[in-house]
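Late entry, written up from scratch paper. The run itself happened at the end of the previous shift, but nothing got recorded in the book at the time, so transcribing now.
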Amino acid sequence: RQENKGPGAARNLGASQCSGQYIAFLDSDDVWFPWTLKTFAEAIRVQNEPDLVAAKLFEFCHERELESVKEEPLKVDIFQDYYSTSRMGYFVGACMMVLRKSVFEESGGFTNAPIYAEDCDLALRLGLVRRFVQILSPVTLGYRQHQTNARRNYPRIYRGTLNLIDSERAGRYPGGEARKTQRIRLVTLHTRPFSVACVTHSHHRFGWTLYGKTFCWHVRTLRWKYLIGFPLVALWHGIRIQRNAKKRFKPSNCS
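Output as recorded:
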């Protein structure tokens, strides 16, 4: 057992105990299916042992929803590396990763900092490893949605998201200028939805900071819908908050 130092430290400790050629992660509240490991092994074998494989995700709230998930023939999407997926919108969370252990060790593993988005940071640091395979079918991971999911913890997610931005600016991710556009597409894939979630859940400072820090990147990648839409969404929710506040504190006419 390990005292709670954050998800990255716990996963690094688990990986250090593994003896196989590949590593896969599973959180205690998520689910693998009877065919999951068999599917991973088949994808690795058929695709000539890629360095990084991503699971097919199924989100659920109640166990009964898993009854709809069935085993299917293997279908995959294949790329030179993870950065090459930047236009596809593929997300690679920690429990979706199946990666070569030697590659994981060479990367330094997950950050030990007590922040979220540590899996996104690792995926970006693995952006140039040899061959990326995205499993399209069958579903191989059941991701449980509930009130205690990490996404509810806005301050820690905010710090993790800032870490992605700061790491890209500091040149911590590989590929140099030649792969910069691909990297910022992948970074902003995470910043966009979270910035919107912030302003719609009364964390306006977080949302506007992320919008400002990534503004030029969104111009570079021609994300006009977000650039125009975010301020409108933020303004609308700000007006709603003010109206609700006025209603709550409206003086009574009773004498």
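The radius of gyration is 21 Å.
(Scratch paper discarded after transcription.)
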